[in-house]
Amino acid sequence: MREVLGDRRTVLVLLAPALAIYTLVMLVPMLWSLGYTLFDGSVISGFQFAGLDNFSRLFSDPKVADALWFTVKYAVVITVGQVLFGYVLSLLYVFVLKRASALIRTLVFFPVVMPTVAVALLFQKLFEVAPQTGPVNALFNAFGLESVNWLGDPANAFVVLAIMDIWRSMGFYAVLLYAGLIDIPEDVLEAARLDGASGWRLVRNIVIPLSFPVLVSSLIFSINGTLKVFDSIYALTGGGPGTATTPLTLAMYRTSFASGDYGYGATIALALTVLSLLVTLLIFKTSRRDLTQG
Amino acid sequence: MKSTGRTWAPRMACAVTVSLALAACGGGSGGDGGSSDDGFTMMSLNENTTQDSVITSLSEDQCATQDEALPLDITEQAQESVDQQIQLLAGQGALPDLFPANTPDLIRELAENDQVANVQDVLADGDAADAIVPAAESAADQIFGDQLVLPVELNIEGIWFNKEILEANGIAVPQTWDELVAAFETLQAAGVQPITNAGSGGDGWGISRWIGAYLFRTIGPDAMRAIADGEASLTDPEYVEAAQAIAELGEAGYFGPAPNSIDYATAINTFLTGEAAFMYMGSWALADFNDPEANQIGEDAIGFLPFPEVEGGEGNSDQTPTNLGTSIVLSSAVAEEEQAQAWVECIASNYGSVALRDHGQITGLQLAEDVEVPPLTGLVQDQIEATDESVLWFEALFPASATTASQQNAGLVGSGQMSGEDFMSAVSAELG
Amino acid sequence: MTTPATPLVAPHADLPTGERPAPRPRRRRRPMRALRKLPLYSVVAVLLISVLYPLVWLVLGSFKTQDEFLNSPTWALPEDFTNLENFDAAWGSVSQYLLNSTLAVFPALLVMLVIGTAAGFALEIMVWKGRGTVLLVFLIGIMVPWQMILLPLFTVYFQAGLTQSLWPLIITYTATGLPLTVFLMATYFRAIPREVFEAATLDGASMLRSLVSIAFPMMKNAIFTIALVQFFFMWNDLLIALTFTTRDELRTVQAGLLNFTGEFGVVQYGPTFAAICINVLVILAIYLFLNQRVMRGMAAGAVKG
Q1: Nearest CA in chain C to A108
Q2: Does domain B157-322+390-431 have CATH number 3.40.190.10?
């Protein structure tokens, strides 16, 4: 029996297509770009071997340090927000709305469908301060508060960014987690209820442990998305005001293609990849340990 | 495909990848997007419909013969990705015959690597040898150090003002910087927004232009050349002074509320709906000024003021900031091919009048025929003709990273959140 | 990892509707008073307003003129609801872009799902040395910023003469979607006890056969969820589409939306909104069409609890 499950030819047939495409289109170009980290120059003027110059530059570049700090800050806040709101929504779907949730699920999912360009435009308009007063500031004024320069101030711009990205992705995570929650066997819940567990205790003691694998997947998925954030920031703030909301990806894209400094851009990309790798491994290790406890 | 001794890395990886992949590496030498066998190729900006339509209309009329010999083939590229695309294609030695000069620094780099043709050389032997007007020639010299573009756009910059607002507040057209600042003060006191200029995201050039123009008046026309040549630094006191002068306008609130969240379209609209008195802008805005739907104050209400002189400064207000927009660059392949040259000659001879007639676009090319123009366009034409000496703009000679730093941070100067000194050091850091 | 004695996720979780154990009779509930539901209603109402307002705003916006965008408040109604100029301006090009997006996304999606599921199966159900490492190798793909592979890929596509077609998009989408698909499929397969497949082999089925006749049907919901996720990634991608499409007639919807921006960054709001509206409507249609199947499956799931 184990022989059939371990049949090498079958493994090869099943795995080879995916592994081949993945290797050719992602791994090889990645290693290729990795090679560029040792070079200086551009596609136009040609590359010269530069040894570890790019790396020493990386560690002393205040711009990279700023971008790194912003990336981490952004990733933590947005990941927690996305997964938390998504989880609360999915609990709402499964335990409160039940059958009525289908329509609401679809509607809350809707922002994911909107193109980034459109979402960014919407939020720019919502949080507009001048020349017209946007709805949010109008609300502030109605309560006797001063208008706030939302996108022109570093701290406020981050708030708008966070609201926008959590808003647009919570429906998505809700559906992802919902798929995990409806799979919890009814008899397990029933048994817990008979034991008198309800509300928060039911969620904490039964639901969270049982939906843990999906939660971890969502977390890994989310953190890797937020560490590599590009579109939404590019469209909403363009990295500004100043460079206050510039993540590593944007810094890398600008370095590689606006400045044509491909080697250094690849070095920044490598740093980001390593960061993602470490975070993922950390989550992975922690969760595997928890999983095997049972 | 030109092989200029590029490194082993791309080649080897290409060999590895492609020998495994569907297609073979050697098979595509020269590629598919190459220039010569595909007709007369042009990459144009998505966002700039004028160039597309003028050249297309030339291919059907004045340049029909050339088009028959070498059919025109236009591909469009979004401005977002055009620099990236040019670099990628240049890396393959496959630049199209014509492409946009989106970022001067990139074009200069291409020229250093022999990927770009000298326009004067291409035109020298034919009928179009004198097609380029002197103002455009001088601007190209300053920006690129050589004649690297076919100047299908030529813009002058300065301060546009709303005559009616000035009159209503009893302000005479300011002749010096001090008078200008005094006018701002009067307007601000009267509850009128003195200036509108964009400062959000990458639109910060609306405000960095003020800093550049001020520098050309205080230090003189070579102010930015000295920076590029390393003879001066942006953190020198006389440079910081210019940024500080603009930062003070920002602190006083003259740029209106939150200029760093205002984009280009909003800034122009604020001016054209009579909500602000002054705006620093290039003559490309004529398209909006001449559009009655956009321009609600009427063309008669708009006046042009060359950036005023600063007391004790080296520069004077006859030195007009000039740029060539996103003019057309010729790839070096054009110089080697007769049919392509004939095409370029035809464009050089006819583009100017067609663009002006059909699109109101002022070019740096001689007109083949007389064209009647709206009064504001005429005013700009006169100004161009009267210009002996042109100057550039703040970022013209910067590498891309410094340009980004300048445009990103200028908005903060305009909103009074950043001092002149901080701004100059932030940009200076990118100049390395 | 061996299968734990008590499966963490219900083994029958992904059974298609028909094979699902019949829902047990529901407990009788006391009639709830409307008052008690009030907080719930208001939460749901706020939720719906926050997600529906953009749609309304978008639709309203597509009827507005540029002047209204710039000079009237954001929440104002359009002056003329019969103003279809924006749609007129948008439709001509958007129809082509929609076709391109469809031609690029669906083949990529299909290939990616088939080979991704197979690989997930091989990595989680099959037993062989080194599968942990291979899974990790796939996982790296989730972490690599896509910006990093653009230059090498462009070179290869260009040399292979593919840049004048949609192939670069199809190939790149397939590959960039694979890591997540493989990873998620492996996660979902973990929920199926290996005994199911062991039993099948006892009956003489080969592993390939088990995959096709047991794993695929059991995984329908999971595959659908992944398909949905990946569809939106591919459909909303801008970076890859901008890099590899050089001709207007090859442009996808997202890249095409930039068309309505002027040279100095002046957005032509009306046509942009109309184009986005058309795009969103098409996606919604696709989504609802595909969703019908799964909604039926999920409805059964929602009954319990």
Answers
A1: C51
A2: yes
